[in-house]
Amino acid sequence: MAKIVVRDLRSYAFHGCLDAEKKIGGHYETTVWVEGDFNKSEQTDLLKDAVDYETLGLIVQEEMKTSSNLIENVACRILNEIEKSFSNHDLFNVGIKIVKINPPVKGDVPQVEYIKEKKYK
Questions:
Q1: pLDDT in tens, 18-27
Q2: How far is the C-alpha of 60 from the C-alpha of 30, rounded, in Å?
Q3: Residue 115 burial by CB count (10 A; 0-12/13-18/19+): exposed, middle or buried?
Q4: Which residues, other chains included, contact 109 with Cβ-Cβ below 8 Å and sequence gap of 6+?
Q5: Please, which pLDDT band fits residue 116 given cuts at 50, 70 and 90?
Q6: Of 69, 80, 116, 81, which Cα lies nearest the Cα of 96?
């Protein structure tokens, strides 16, 4: 088993329950990982047999463009898209961490994180 990790993809997005968050937006960092049996790509050395990390990044960037009230919703959409895009691979675990930088909440809160994993085996 192996793991591909795409770490700290930066986005400016418009997620949140407050009108100001949807209007002004905010900074996010997203990390995604995919665990699976990557023996085929190790042997063939072909991108078509691999979990392409560029595709992972593009999925994150595309889903971050769609505004949601909750980052939980965004994370779920991203994981679903990853699952669809790599359904022909032997995946064991797919995960995500979305970090909302300087959320507009009372108190000194530099960031909020949401982490979710989907296990297949």
A1: 998 999 999 9
A2: 8
A3: exposed
A4: 102, 103
A5: very high
A6: 116
